[in-house]
């Protein structure tokens, strides 16, 4: 188990939305947080240290790993990306972080994977982490790559890991699909906290959602990890309905997208370079 009182935890992508939620949720109990991002990291507490670093700078990553017991790897390209940037950060950068962690003797890696790792499964099927991956995009493919690398690092080098197949992370649900896939800031902090504290997670893949009434998952490995989410997208139905979201169709099993990955599963892949 990683000790929150004595062990240093490195968080990459710490200035992002999830990184900010983790800082708020972890800093009270985790006494040694090392943070990195390409963007400024603001309002550091006394138990946080920060480095502004590009994930492509391998030497800088290796320096940050010194004395680190666990890594929470959040850094990645998402949203409006091109494929060159996606590969540089989500494939090459992923390898550099994981390999630097191995060389530094890091004992545990928590990886921000994604529900897009299985996004091509029909939404009518409650998915399980035990099922084969079915990524819905190259973004999802590189998340599967990260999970596969961590399996190899566990089998070959004994590095424990938890891959979190994160759903729709927002302060509140945003659409019909997120009635099933929402992950709240409080629950993502709890999910990472228990992933760090677990005495022996092995090489675990976990579906990262809140306690939503309309979950489309089974055996998400929550009990094994000790994760007990408290938030529920259902509590925000009236807000979504007022915004014109058809929340009632989900009650009848009628989803706006036929796959778990939503629009990702049918969107055209982005160009290799911007024109």
- Overall 3D geometry? globular
Q: Please give the share of residues in helix.
A: 25-40%
Second rung of CATH, namely the architecture: 3-Layer(aba) Sandwich
**Whole-number radius of gyration?**
18 Å
Q: Which percent band covers the strand fraction? A: 15-25%
Strand runs, count: 9
Provide the spatial order of strands within the biggest beta sheet: 3-2-1-4-5-6-9
Class by helix and strand content? alpha/beta
| Poorly predicted tracts of residues | none
Oligomer: single chain
- Give the N-to-C terminal Cα separation: 49 Å
Mean pLDDT: 95
CATH H level, superfamily name: NAD(P)-binding Rossmann-like Domain
Number of domains: 1
Major pleated sheet: 7 strands, parallel
Notable traits:
single chain, 275 residues, alpha/beta, Rossmann fold, 7-stranded parallel beta sheet, two-stranded parallel ribbon, 8 helices, 9 strands, 31% helix
Fold topology:
Blueprint lengths: L7 E5 L4 H10 L6 E5 L10 E5 L5 H7 L3 E6 L9 H22 L3 E7 L23 H20 L2 E7 L1 E2 L8 H4 E2 L1 H13 L5 E6 L13 H4 L11 H6 L33
Parallel strand pairs: 1-2, 1-4, 2-3, 4-5, 5-6, 6-9, 7-8
Summarize the structure in words.
The chain has 275 residues and is of the alpha/beta class. The protein has 8 helices and 9 strands. The chain has a single domain (8-266), classed as Rossmann fold. It has helices at residues 17-26, 58-64, 83-104, 138-157, 178-181, 185-197, 222-225, 237-242; strands at residues 8-12, 33-37, 48-52, 68-73, 108-114, 160-166, 168-169, 182-183, 203-208. It has a 7-stranded parallel beta sheet with strand order 3-2-1-4-5-6-9, with helices on both faces. A two-stranded parallel ribbon has the order 7-8. Strand 7 (168-169), helix 5 (178-181) and strand 8 (182-183) form a beta-alpha-beta unit. The N and C termini lie far apart (49 Å).
């Amino acid at each position: 188990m990683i000790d929150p009182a004595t062990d240093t935890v490195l968080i990459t992508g710490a200035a992002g939305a999830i990184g900010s939620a983790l800082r708020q949720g972890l800093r009270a109990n985790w006494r040694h947080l090392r943070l990195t991002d390409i963007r400024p990291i603001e309002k550091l507490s006394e138990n946080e240290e920060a480095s502004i670093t590009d994930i492509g700078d391998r030497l800088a990553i290796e320096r940050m790993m010194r004395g680190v017991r666990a890594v929470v790897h959040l850094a990645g390209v998402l949203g409006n990306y091109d494929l060159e940037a996606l590969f540089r950060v989500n494939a090459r950068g992923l390898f550099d972080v994981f390999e630097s962690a191995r060389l530094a003797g890091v004992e545990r890696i928590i990886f921000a994977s994604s529900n897009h790792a299985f996004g091509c499964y029909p939404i009518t099927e409650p998915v399980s982490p035990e099922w084969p991956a079915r990524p819905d995009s190259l973004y999802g493919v590189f998340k599967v790559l990260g999970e596969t690398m961590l399996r190899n690092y566990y089998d070959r080098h004994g590095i424990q890991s938890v891959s979190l197949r994160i759903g729709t992370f927002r302060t509140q649900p945003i659409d019909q699909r997120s009635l099933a896939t929402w992950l709240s800031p409080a629950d993502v902090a709890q999910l990472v906290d228990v992933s760090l504290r677990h005495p022996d997670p092995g090489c675990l893949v976990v579906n990262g959602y809140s306690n939503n009434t309309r979950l489309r998952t089974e055996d998400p490995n929550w009990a094994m990890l000790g994760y007990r989410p408290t938030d529920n997208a259902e509590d925000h139905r009236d807000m979504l309905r007022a915004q014109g979201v058809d929340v009632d169709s989900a009650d009848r099993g009628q989803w706006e997208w036929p796959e778990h990955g939503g629009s990702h599963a049918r969107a055209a892949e982005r160009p290799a370079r911007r024109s």
